[in-house]
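Q&A log
Question type: sequence-to-structure
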Amino acid sequence: MSGTKGTMKYLYKEVYKSLLNNRSYIILLYLFMSLTSFMYFFVQFSIDSNRDGLQELVRSGRTLSKNQSDFLTGLQANGALAWTFFIMLFNAERFCGASILHVLF
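Response status: OK
Response body:
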């Protein structure tokens, strides 16, 4: 058992050195993840407000035109896509975000 722990210790040490040597790439990766999460929230709020407006029209009993109906369908598909993107982004940040922050600061 101690042989495995010793091997993992050397592996962690090597990964840590590699991260320190590639600090600029790590910073760029972290900025990319941060900016994409901002982009997700911007898109999600935009989708939500447009979708809510069209759904309110439907709830009030008005019928949607062909373009409005197509737009509502597209918004619903984009909302599902945004959630999928958010889940993948959250998992990526959870996987490497903490170790990136630990190395940088």
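Response note: The CA atoms of residues 88 and 94 lie 10 Å apart.
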